[in-house]
């Protein structure tokens, strides 16, 4: 015997199909006796409604599509966790798709999720073209865009203030007695790099600024640039190094280990991002922890309010405070 249908339920209960539908959807009043018969029939038949068919009729699927550049990127996985866990609190499940940084794949993902009757979209990217943004708007599906590297006109998001957080981190070094601090920045021009440079410069002053721009953001890049950094450090009697991310900081500290430079006794080093390795590496890295879970959680809450037309909580960018983790790689000096 195949799966029971709504027609089977109606026949067993001795009521019309429309009455069964009203009971299931709680859409119109039904007499207590008819409701009892329908519920009994559903239980006896172990009837499970076709959720896709119901979503097509009711235009409600309780599904949200999440498109990421790559789930293998550590911070994107943290964002997804916040989105999924808080989404479930509001009875929404997610369908996940990856674009791998390709516009065509991103467009395909949008089309695919639209066929699944998703009620909203969260796009987690590091760059998105104008053409894809136009397509996104044309779908008429409510969406939230999370891109920490870029800002987009007329699109509000959830983020941290990289300028303010870098300023606080560098100020924590000055409060430890460090008067000369090197900032290792990425050459690429984007919101994060430009904001962090501004934060560093406002903390140390324009006349006391030492910035080394390097090509790349991996630990290998941090190691390769270390010769140049150490030359500047010794020439200017610099006592602390602030890196644009944890990976560069780890690579730089590896160089220090290989060349007899003790961190933090000879040189304090700080990173940014609080990647998993930051609390495992020795010495443990002083860094800024970005609340990616919270960013994901607020984003899905904002999206659900849009879906339900309950108002807009992203009337402006929602800025979340980050947290400095003071660990072993930096210390007070005399």
From TrEMBL:
SUPFAM superfamilies: lambda repressor-like DNA-binding domains, Periplasmic binding protein-like I
Domain named HTH lacI-type: residues: 4-58
Keyword Glycosyltransferase in annotation: no
Taxonomy, superkingdom: Bacteria
Chain ranges of the HTH cro/C1-type domain: 5-52
GO molecular function list: DNA binding
SMART domains assigned to the protein according to its UniProt record, in alphabetical order: HTH_LACI (SM00354)
Key words of the record: DNA-binding, Transcription, Transcription regulation
TM ranges: none
Record flagged with keyword Transcription: yes
Gene3D superfamilies: 3.40.50.2300, lambda repressor-like DNA-binding domains
Annotated protein name in UniProt: LacI family DNA-binding transcriptional regulator
């Amino acid at each position: 015997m195949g799966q029971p249908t709504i027609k089977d339920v109606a026949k067993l209960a001795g009521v019309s199909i429309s009455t069964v539908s009203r009971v299931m959807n709680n859409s119109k009043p039904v007499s207590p006796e008819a409701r009892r018969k329908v519920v009994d029939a559903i239980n006896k038949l172990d009837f499970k409604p076709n959720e896709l068919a119901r979503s097509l009729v009711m235009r409600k699927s309780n599904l949200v599509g999440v498109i990421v550049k790559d789930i293998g990127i550590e911070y994107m996985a943290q964002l997804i966790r916040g989105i999924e866990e808080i989404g479930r609190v509001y009875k929404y499940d997610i369908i996940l798709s990856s674009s791998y940084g390709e516009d065509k794949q991103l467009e395909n993902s949008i089309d695919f999720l639209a066929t699944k009757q998703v009620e909203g979209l969260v796009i987690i990217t590091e760059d998105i073209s104008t053409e894809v943004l136009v397509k996104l708007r044309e779908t008429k599906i409510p969406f939230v865009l999370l891109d920490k590297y870029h800002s987009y006109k007329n699109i509000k998001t959830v983020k941290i203030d990289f300028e303010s957080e870098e300023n606080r981190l560098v100020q924590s070094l000055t409060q430890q007695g460090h008067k000369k601090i090197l900032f290792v920045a990425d050459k690429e021009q984007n919101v994060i790099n430009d904001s962090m440079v501004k934060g560093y410069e406002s903390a140390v002053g324009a006349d006391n600024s030492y910035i080394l721009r390097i090509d790349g953001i991996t630990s290998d890049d941090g190691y390769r640039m270390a010769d140049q950094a150490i030359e500047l450090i010794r020439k200017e009697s610099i006592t602390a190094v602030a890196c644009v991310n944890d990976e560069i900081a780890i690579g730089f500290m590896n160089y220090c280990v290989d060349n007899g430079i003790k961190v933090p006794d000879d040189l304090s080093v700080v990173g940014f991002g609080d990647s998993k390795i930051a609390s495992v590496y020795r010495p443990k890295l002083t860094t800024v922890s970005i609340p990616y879970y919270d960013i994901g959680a607020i984003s899905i809450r904002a999206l659900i309010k849009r879906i339900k037309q309950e108002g807009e909580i992203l009337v402006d960018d929602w800025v979340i405070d980050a947290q400095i983790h003071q660990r072993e790689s930096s210390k007070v000096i005399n």
